[in-house]
Amino acid sequence: MRSETLIWAAVAAIFAFLFIPIVVIVLYAFSAAPIPAWPIAGFALHWFADTWHDQAVRQALVLSLEVASVATIAAMLLGTLAAMAVARMQSAAKEVVSFIAVLPIALPGILTGMALAAYFAFWGINLSYWTIVAGHATFCVVIVYNNVVARLRRMPRSLTEASADLGADAFRTFRLVQLPMMASAIGAGALLAFALSFDEVIVTTFTAGAQNTLPLWIFGAIRLGQQLPEVNVVVFAIILFTAIPVLLAQKLIGESGKVAR
Amino acid sequence: MRDGFKRKLARLALYVSVSLPFAQGAAAAEPLQSIGQGEGVLNMVAWEGYAQPDWVKPFEAATGCMVHAKYAGSSDEMVALMRSGGGDQYDLVSASGDATLRLIYGHDVQPINMALIPAWKNFIPQLQSPAFNTVRGVHYGVSYEWGPNTLLYNTKVFPAAPTSWSVIYDPAYKGKITVPDNPIQIADAALYLSKKDPSLGITDPYELNQAQMDAVVTLLKAQSKLIKKYWALASDEIQLFTSGDAVVGAAWPYQTNTLQAAKVPVAETIPQEGATGWADTWMISAKAPHPNCAYEWINWVTTPKVQAEQAIYFGETPANTLACKEMDAQQPGSCAQYHANAPASYFDQIKFWKTPRKACGNGKDDCLDYSAWQREWQIIKG
Amino acid sequence: MSLNRTFSVLGWRRPGVANAALLGLPALWFAALYLAAIGALLITSFWTVDDLSGNLIPGFSFTNFQQLLSVPVYTHIALRTIGIAAAVTITDVILAWPVAYAMIRLAGPRLRAVMMAAVMVPLWSSYLARVYAWRLILAHNGLLNWALMEIGLPRAHIGYSNWAMWIVFSYLWLPFMILPVAASVERIPPSLLEASADLGERGFATFRRVMLPMALPGMVAGAIFTFSLTLGDYVTPMLVGGRGSDFIGNVVYSNVGVTNNIPFAAAYAVLPLGVMAVFLLIARKLGAFDAL
């Protein structure tokens, strides 16, 4: 009993560690001074209006949402296909695929960014929306892939065989048997992939060209140092809006009985 | 089979780097003959504080060119950004004198037709065709503003302004000093040493031979033990002074103005040894996708009004001599405060940033070039 | 429909064909984009730069590597980077365990869902904004020192230092450790723990002898993230590091910025690549890929 109390105390301290910076972000969203100092001298609400009317924030937010959506869809497609292929393979080939899929996340982002920027230049591809998407999709694949692989591992192969025995072709089996069973795993992976893309800085720095995703706008605001409360307002708003999908992801993962990643 | 693949990979690598933006040399385009309809968009690489809403918003309204600014904290970063993605990502850059020649010789920027820039004839003579943006009579950019790198200090710690740069090398302020994370900072130390130790024979802080560099590096290595943080972003230094982590450091007037506006007790000074400084130039990318908007911008920001706004906002001096009256109208006394009416001798005493090259001004070839500065800087920082 | 039928027959009779069809698109994506780009970059690390023209000279030379090895500062930076990445990984393993254990073994289903969501919320709030928040917390006149002085303690001088980087990195990547550790704790059959208890093992002994080895793949999987994300970062050192806090990433980044030093940057980038390759091979041995 005593050790349980100790564990809970540790858990409380660790959650405090996780959330203190977020509390700080939210607090400074209401700070009157453009340059943050502690203790906060005065409070103001005008940063919310300023942020709302800031075209640069809006454009960056829209770009980030678009990029994250398209990258996530690409990652869902590629990750699911790879996972389905791997489910039928023997372990050596499986490990090779897993190894390659995890590389974009396991290798330092600066390496990926530099390599992609040079590679795009080689093909004469102008840095654009699509180059950002290509970079993000590459490192998002592994997340969907891992989720689906884990699900398929627990899915008895006899089900698809039964479907085939009953005369269903491959696509019918996929649509009626496999897809419904994988759906929540794909969904949970997709939400995490979206989050990862939405917040990525390092690879994006190299693949974005003149456009600003939201993290790049935030970096610009940080270096300018004069509209930091706007950054806090944006992040505060994102936290509020994402509490919903995070809880939703939780539900999806809960159904699958497995923790993501 | 294996070897064939390796060979292919090697060939691919060759292609990649040959086409790398960093190795690319674009043919200089003919300058624009007349300014046409704006393209609706303008992408620029700028110093912090160079694309403020005060003059960007009216520009957008007047020309329809929507401004997207990317801020860079060093000349190196500006050069890299201008070359990113094949060099067609940005239309404009506010390059300082240590980046301009790299961009010109790298064929990254295009010649400017000065007939299309009416304000140019009103510039101070030194900035009409300076060597750092005009090569063999061809203009590759339009001068903008200039100013000194200053000594920033906390007025609670220094009731009187320090008179020498020695304070940023003084162990008394250990852990309270900040200087820019920029190899060009070596020149600041060289300038200080040239006065403190004339026997070294440093005449130009950007032209250092190995012996002189060794002396400067020794000074900077000793300094690095006293540094709280090498600031990479203007906001780093603002934050360091706001939170009390630093009390003295090398700065731009931008930080001073921002800190004073936030009521942080700071002031700036130019110590007796003099100062390094910058003279910025707007340059148009060789592959600028929106050249008309770029010309519109240059004309917009060289008008006396915007020149004055920029000068007061950043704390620097306009190139356009007509801006003095505007400055006093916007903020009485600011023309004299920022030296917009100072005699030519004031301009001449500032050691403006330039790219260190092997060929020294004295005709010898024994100076260290910028890549050597880079290496030394990395070693100094440890 | 008959085409469909053909595919399905092929798929069952010749699994290789079906696998190839499924794997084709992802394989093409990775080979044509990612692996080609990384491979090409690595080859440039053997190239050199012409001092006069600044052009890249293709070839096969160890000049860049020699320079990296002969100037001690690059070794220091590499050791600092790897050392902090290792410290962060160990810290995160230690911090992840109580949370993962409480979440899976102690909490009810409702509380577990709330805890899981709470672990993920930080992932959704901008990485940059959180790093910046830490800068405000750890500064000389920041929240931490204010709190210390309020309770009568002296100031802690950890703002802008390697300590700050250790704290902030540990903070940033903690969720990436908690999730896989929790997942692997969840996979330990409760019957096993009961058996251990029945055999008279005390709580901690059960943890050490049963849970820890069984959750090892989860910890290694988490370590892939915490270690590699730290290894490749340059923004956090830039924002919260002090003097002498450069990481490999900072050197790489500044060399990309300097005219034509791509080969040197690529050469230095080989180091984290090699470190991660070894790390991943060990991780594979320990079964981490199944626990990702």
Tally of helical segments of chain B: 14
The first-to-last residue Cα distance of chain C is 38 Å
Oligomeric form: heterotrimer
Q: CATH fold name of the largest domain in chain B, please? A: D-Maltodextrin-Binding Protein, domain 2
What's the number of extended β-strand segments of chain B? 14
Structural class of chain B: alpha/beta
Question: What does it look like?
Answer:
With 261 residues, chain A is an all-alpha fold. Helices cover 80% and strands 0% of the residues of chain A. Chain A contains eleven helices and no strands. In chain A, helix 1 packs antiparallel against helix 11 (228-256). Chain B has 14 helices and 14 strands. Chain B has 382 residues and is an alpha/beta fold. The relative contact order of chain B is 0.17. Chain B has two domains: 2-147 and 278-349, Periplasmic binding protein-like II (D-Maltodextrin-Binding Protein, domain 2, 3-Layer(aba) Sandwich); 150-274 and 355-381, D-Maltodextrin-Binding Protein, domain 2. In chain B, helix 5 (185-196) crosses helix 6 (210-224), helix 6 (210-224) packs parallel to helix 14 and helix 10 (304-314) packs across helix 11 (323-330). Chain C has helices at residues 2-13, 15-44, 63-70, 72-106, 109-124, 127-138, 143-150, 162-187, 190-198, 203-214, 216-231, 235-240, 248-257, 262-285, 288-291, and strands at 48-49, 56-57. In chain C, 78% of the residues lie in helices and 1% in strands. Chain C is an all-alpha fold. The mean pLDDT of chain C is 85. Chain C has one domain: Orthogonal Bundle (MetI-like fold), CATH 1.10.3720.10. The interface between A and C is large, with 98 and 99 residues.
Question: Quick summary of this structure?
Answer:
The complex is a heterotrimer of chains A (261), B (382) and C (292). Chain A is mainly α and 261 residues long. Chain A is 80% helix and 0% strand.
What is the secondary structure topology, with strand pairs?
The complex is a heterotrimer of chains A (261), B (382) and C (292).
Chain A: H1 2-28, H2 46-53, H3 55-87, H4 91-106, H5 109-122, H6 129-154, H7 157-165, H8 170-198, H9 202-207, H10 214-224, H11 228-256
Chain B: H1 2-18, E1 41-46, H2 53-63, E2 66-71, H3 75-83, E3 92-95, H4 97-105, E4 134-135, E5 138-139, E6 142-148, E7 150-154, E8 177-180, H5 185-196, H6 210-224, E9 227-231, H7 234-242, E10 248-251, H8 253-261, E11 266-269, E12 276-284, H9 291-301, H10 304-314, E13 317-318, H11 323-330, H12 334-337, H13 344-349, E14 351-352, H14 370-381
Parallel strand pairs in B: 1-2, 1-3, 8-9, 8-10, 12-14
Antiparallel strand pairs in B: 3-12, 4-5, 6-12, 6-13, 7-10, 7-11
Chain C: H1 2-13, H2 15-44, E1 48-49, E2 56-57, H3 63-70, H4 72-106, H5 109-124, H6 127-138, H7 143-150, H8 162-187, H9 190-198, H10 203-214, H11 216-231, H12 235-240, H13 248-257, H14 262-285, H15 288-291
Antiparallel strand pairs in C: 1-2
